[in-house]
Amino acid sequence: MKKSLLAAAVLSAVSFGAYADGVELYGIVDLAVANVSALSSTDPTFPSSLKLKGGVAATTTTSLSAMVSGGIQGSRWGIKGSETIGDGLSAIFALESQIQANNGNLANAWATKATGAANGDASSINGQLFGRQAWVGLKDTDMGQIRFGRNYSVIYDVYNDYDPVQFAGLFTPTGNSGSVAGGGLTEMVRQDNSIKYIGKTGDINYTLMYKLGNIAGSTSAGSITSAQLGYEKGALGIQAAYQSAIDALGYNSYTAATGSGATYVAAKYKGMVGNVSSYILGAKYKFNDALTGKITYERVTYSNPSDTDQTFLNNNFLSYLGGYSFTEVAPRSAGSSGFSVAGLGGNYNLSDKLGIYVGYYAINYDAVGGLKLTANNALNYAFTENYTSVLLDYNLSKRTDVYLGAMNVTTGQNTKPSGSDMTASSGLTIVAAGMRHKF
């Protein structure tokens, strides 16, 4: 009896200590069984579910039926909390890790990239313990909050609330493509070494964010400046955000490269060293208790890097790639290029528990997509990808739901351009059923 009371007292003390200052353990476990007609990634540790092949893809097509983590939201666990300091001021923090719930692995795209496998792909989650976010900050009841560390981009924040189909990993190009949610580069979805201020005045909300480059010899290289401004009142919501990256480096898997060393890096990282600017506009309107409509438009523009010095690029940007260097860096043949993304749709509540989400998306790629390394690697053709998505989501409770969804992708380019790495294909589909639990 005494031992039981002692154990209860210890457990109570531990619990009180863990929650006295608002520390919370939370997470999501989201698993789906999916069939995909064409893939560009099947790695079990890859953090962004399965990747449909669209207009730019490897030259082979692989279908797959598999269990994947993150049909709607990436499976994760995290710790967040706050401590009241006084006079409306609190200290706040968040540490969040992404896992592959189907096998227990830590989500890690870096392992995929480092191998040089043809099924490699990009991600901002590269095996970090807290790859989704990691920051500490201050929150004031009147002045808003400021965070220091690894933060979500402002482009991501807008899509998270304004995407028509829940920003779902398997059912939208916004959730499926990190370059869309990152504002041009997948690695910019989450920004290390960043300072993020979030404020609200009445019905107006706003964000200012700056990522330090942390690159010796330059105060601007690797930096990102961004801002967001929005209005939300009653049934109406409007958001706008802008982001500018200087001398950014991103991963590109358009080519199924072979070989190793600088040749491999040059092929795999083609077209993604330079300045990247992007903006997004989003709107939503709740017509009634059942129906909500949403629309988004994003434009991404790539331009030549501010610093074109070969030695600077090699020493600073590619040091973490195992010493590989760009040996074929050449100026862009056009002044700038990029892509645009338009999304339209919404959701309708068929009952208190069942909702349907529908979305249509068009991604229009310019003829030249970024700083090219060789003539063969330039995206010297324009094309359009069209995505049609539908998702049925049934709530078993406030924290648990089951879902069934599908997404179809067609490309406006049905013939393979001469000398390109584009796959002529249409009707690429993904169908998946899954379960999500939040704790």
Provide an overview of this structure.
With 439 residues, the chain is mostly beta strands. It contains seven helices and 20 strands. It has one domain: Porin, CATH 2.40.160. The chain has helices spanning 2-19, 110-115, 154-162, 173-176, 178-181, 261-268, 310-317, and strands spanning 24-36, 39-41, 51-52, 64-69, 76-86, 89-100, 105-106, 133-140, 144-152, 190-201, 204-211, 224-233, 236-249, 273-286, 291-303, 336-349, 354-365, 383-395, 400-411, 428-438. Strand 12 (224-233) and strand 13 form a beta hairpin. The two termini are 33 Å apart.
The name of the CATH architecture is Beta Barrel
Share of helix, binned? 10-25%
Taking the sheet with the most strands, its summary is: 16 strands, antiparallel, barrel
Number of helices: 7
Q: What overall form do the CA principal axes indicate? A: globular
Order of helices and strands: HEEEEEEEHEEHHHEEEEHEEHEEEEE
Mean pLDDT level: 77
> Can you tell me the CATH topology?
Porin
**Category by helix and strand content:** mainly beta
Calculate Rg over CA atoms: 22 Å
The proportion of strand residues reads over 45%
Any idea of the CATH class? Answer: Mainly Beta
Q: How many structural domains can be distinguished in the coordinates?
A: 1
Separation, N- and C-terminal Cα atoms? 33 Å
Spatially, the strands of the biggest sheet line up as 1-5-6-8-9-10-11-12-13-14-15-16-17-18-19-20
| CATH homologous superfamily title | Porin
Count the beta strands. 20
Low-confidence stretches: 5-20, 53-60, 113-120, 250-272, 316-334, 369-379, 414-425
